[in-house]
Write a structure and sequence with these properties.
Rossmann fold, GMP Synthetase, Chain A, domain 3, 7-stranded mixed β-sheet, 20 strands, 25% strand
Length: 518
């Protein structure tokens, strides 16, 4: 592989069904080396052909003693490639190399403290006693030949172990989660010291490689991109335009479900700043007519999705022949870790953001972001010069405000919701909190309440504020606002938005709730 290729010699993460596999891959990338996730049962030959710098076995929900326990190819241990096993991965490695794993007499779930001695390259520069996060019912009780203990906790005598000669390492704890306070240093040690990787994975080097790949794939053909104004499609469009210029045409469909000022912002950025061929389609009336009287959220989504495809296809057909459909598919869309019957599987899928169009229009997919995580996409957008207002905005659902206007959708209700949403975001920015929040949104509820405004009785709409913190949207916790900020937001909405007289704040985490209401 080319020394200039940022994806050369990756660190491969084998997924044994862990809920944190994506987080492991992200931690490796944060350390400056490309990583990718593969199913646990990938063959040693396939791994070897990728010329990886290192291999990481993830954790997983199974026991190594289960009848259908996921096992890796034994030949992986014969490769001259460093291996780090995490939790189940550490137990599996110990067992497959001749050690023993038994049911723990005292299980560990949550915070523990790791004691270790100097001398281990994996734990170098970690405090002599450092906080780690445990989640296990089994534990290693004897080590394979050639291995030694490098770390212990109160209940786990083999919390970390190593064979420095063969570069095989195991940790019972989870260094990828934030509760392991020096986990980042552990990954740095594994990637740089043990695997001897150079810092090669960054968005500057990725841009050059991606442009070359796009040009090779597209040649002199033409690409159409459905531009939503969201981060993913915006970054994809900017990257493709940088690679092939006027061979790209973007279609921006105004479905009437956008945030306040969004249609003007998208046109200004991509027409005036990037000079991209942009076809603007005003389909607001078409969508609102189709949604009239519909309250069921699933019906809303289906109507919005189908109508978008119809509008997009009609516009694309009017443009003449197109060869590729560009989409902002991300790595989490491509990799799905599924745990079934105690055993994991990894499904590689093509995530059709514009479902049905590639087959219907005989288009080939172009997905230049399919190897990136969300935070990497934002870094790429910054590298490409995308305005911060677009690049760092919170996620926005495909059906737009259609799933935030709970109950029946009307233009009046949507305008009310847009006004409340604008105030909410303005006040979050004014308080300096926007970057601390993963996603903030307002839902207009299908109920009315009695109020007193201007000494008059009112009977108006109710809205619910929602703000969450998260790393990947798989789980989320509600954001703890300072009370005075919530008070300002509530006062402004009730005073400035004509049809709202009551504001609530949603304090439901995910799970059990979802981030969006519908």
């Amino acid at each position: 592989m080319s020394a200039n290729n940022p994806e050369a010699n990756p660190v491969v993460v084998l997924d044994f069904g862990a809920q944190y596999s994506k987080l492991i891959a992200r931690r490796v990338r944060d350390a400056g080396i490309f990583s990718l996730i593969l199913p646990y049962n990938v063959s040693a030959e396939e791994v070897k052909a990728m010329e990886p710098s290192g291999i990481i076995f993830s954790g997983g929900p199974a026991s190594v003693h289960a009848d259908e326990a996921p096992l890796c190819d034994q030949a992986l241990f014969d490769l001259d490639i460093p291996i780090l096993g995490i939790c189940y991965g550490a137990q599996l490695m110990a067992q497959q190399l001749g050690g023993t794993v038994e049911r723990a007499t005292k299980r560990e779930y949550g915070i523990a403290h790791l004691d270790h001695t100097d001398g281990s390259r994996l734990l170098a520069d970690l405090d002599a006693q450092t906080q780690v996060w445990m989640s296990h019912g089994d534990m290693v009780t004897s080590l394979p030949e050639g291995f030694s203990v490098i770390g212990t906790t109160e209940n786990c005598p083999f919390a970390a172990f190593a064979n420095g000669e063969t570069k095989r390492y195991g940790v019972q704890f989870h260094p990828e989660v934030v509760h392991t306070t020096q986990g980042v240093q552990l990954f740095q040690n594994f990637v740089h010291t043990i695997c001897e990787c150079d810092n090669r994975w960054n968005m500057g080097s990725f841009v050059d490689m991606a442009i070359e790949d796009i040009r090779n794939q597209v040649g002199d053909k033409h690409v159409i991109c459905g531009l939503s104004g969201g981060v993913d499609s915006s970054v994809a469009a900017a990257l493709i335009h940088k690679a092939i210029g006027d061979q790209l045409t973007c279609v921006f469909v105004n479905n009437g479900l956008m945030r306040k000022g969004e249609t003007d912002l998208v046109q200004e950025v991509f027409q005036d700043n990037f000079h991209i061929n942009l076809r603007y389609v005003d389909a607001e009336d078409l969508f609102l007519d189709a949604l009239a009287g519909i309250s069921d959220p699933e019906k809303k989504r289906k109507i919005i999705g189908k109508l978008f495809i119809d509008v997009f296809e009609k516009e694309a057909t009017s443009m003449g022949h197109m060869d590729f459909l560009a989409q902002g598919t991300l790595y989490p869309d491509v990799i799905e870790s599924v745990s079934a019957n105690g055993g994991p599987s990894v499904t590689i899928k093509s995530h059709h953001n514009v479902g049905g169009l590639p087959e219907k229009m005989n288009l080939e997919l172009l997905e230049p972001l399919r190897e990136l995580f969300k935070d990497e996409v934002r870094a790429l957008g910054h590298e490409l010069g995308l305005p911060d207002e677009l690049n760092y905005r919170h996620p926005f659902p495909g059906p737009g405000l259609g799933v935030r206007c709970i109950g029946e959708i009307t233009k009046e209700r949507l305008d009310t919701l847009r006004d409340a949403d604008e105030i909410f975001i303005d006040e979050i920015r004014a308080a300096g909190l926007y970057g601390d929040i993963w996603q903030a949104l307002v839902c207009l509820l299908p109920v009315r309440s009695v109020g007193v405004q201007g000494d008059e009785r009112t009977y108006e709409e109710v809205c619910s504020l929602r703000a969450v913190t998260s790393e990947d949207a798989m789980t989320a916790d509600w954001f703890r606002f300072p009370p005075e900020v919530l008070q300002r937001i509530s006062n402004r909405i009730c005073n400035e938005v004509q049809h709202i007289n009551r504001v609530m704040y949603d304090v439901t985490s995910k799970p059990p709730g979802t981030i969006e209401w519908e």
